[in-house]
C-alpha cells in the first residue's frame, strides 16, 4: 500500500508520534482530497492489508457524505433539497437529516449565531474572496432576505425538510467536516481499528491512544497569528477538537479584514480578530460550536460554552501585543485531570487524557 505523507496546514495539528508499537500493531497513514480539503487518517493496525481495507472504507464514507452534504456540487442531496423543498416537505437521508437537526438545535440555542440557511450570503462572500473585494451591496441586501434558521423546518417523524421560500440555499460547511470525521472514525472501529485519528482541515477526531501512549498529541497555537507567541500542546483520546478563525480565509478591504465566518445578524464577515478551539466528545459538536461561539464573540461565546456539558474552549482575541488568551473553566480543570468530558446520555468511559505539556 502506498502511503501518502502529504500535509495540509491546520490550526490545530497533529504532532506525529514515533512509530510506536505494541504487540503487533503498526502505524499507517494516508491522505486523500475530499470536502474541499485534504483528509488525513492515521491508524494502528496489525497488518498492511487490514490497514488498507479500513482506510479505503473510511475514505469512501467521507466521499459518500461529501456527495450528500456539499453545497459546491449541483447534484448533492443538500442542493436537491434546496431546489425542491420550498413550501413542501422533502424526505432527507439519515445523514443529512442528522446534520440539519444538530444545526437547527445549535441555531436555536445561540439565537441564530449558527445558521445553515446563510447559503445565499456565504456564496457572495466566497466569490468576493476569490476576487479580493467586498460583495456588491445590493446583491448582499437581496441575499439577506433569503436566510433565517426559522425558515427551515424539520419533521423527525417523517424525516422531511421544508423551506419557507424559493431561493433559499443551505450551507453546512460549519459542521459537516466534524460530522464526516466522526463518521470515518466509526467506520474504522467497525473494522476493529480503535487507535486512530481523522483530520479534516481544522476538525480532528481521535479514537483510542496510539500504542504505549497516553493520547494523541496535538498543538494548539494562535491559529496563524505568530505574533501572539501563543502555543499549547495537548493530549487527546476518544474526543474531538475543532478550530475556527480568520487565519486562512478572509478578504481585506479598506484596511479591514473580513473573515469567511459570517455574522448572521448583519450578513457581513467577522472583522473582530478571534480564533476559537473547542474540545468535545463528538466531531459534529466541536465543529459547530467553534463556528457558533466565534460569531457570539468572546464574552457571549464563553458564557455559552460554560453552560454546555462536556465541552471546553479556548479563545484567542486581538492581534499583536493586544492579543489575549481566554480559557473556559472546564478547560483548566480538564488539563489538570480533574474532569472528564462526557456528552449527555453517554456512558462513562475511561478518563479523557487532556494535558498541557511544558
Please characterize this protein's 3D structure:
- The structure is a single chain.
- This protein is of the alpha+beta class.
- The chain has a domain of 87 residues: T-fold (Orthogonal Bundle).
- 31% of the residues lie in helices and 24% in strands.
- The protein has 8 helices and 18 strands.
- Helix 3 runs parallel beside helix 7.
- It is globular, with a radius of gyration of 20 Å.
Task: Estimate the mean pLDDT confidence.
Answer: 84
CATH architecture call of the domain at 77-163 = Orthogonal Bundle
Following the backbone from N to C, one meets helices and strands in this order, namely EEEHHEHHHEEHEEEEEEEEEEHEEH
Total DSSP helices = 8
At the fourth CATH level, what is the homologous superfamily of the domain at 77-163?
ApbE-like superfamily
Radius of gyration: 20 Å
For the termini, the CA-CA separation is 37 Å
Beta content: 15-25%
| Helix fraction bin | 25-40%
Any low-confidence stretches, pLDDT <50, length ≥5?
A: 1-21, 223-228, 336-358
What is the SS-derived class? Answer: alpha+beta
What are the salient characteristics of this protein?
disordered N terminus, 24% strand, single chain, 8 helices, 31% helix, 358 residues, disordered C terminus, alpha+beta, 18 strands, eight-stranded antiparallel beta sheet, three-stranded antiparallel beta sheet, T-fold
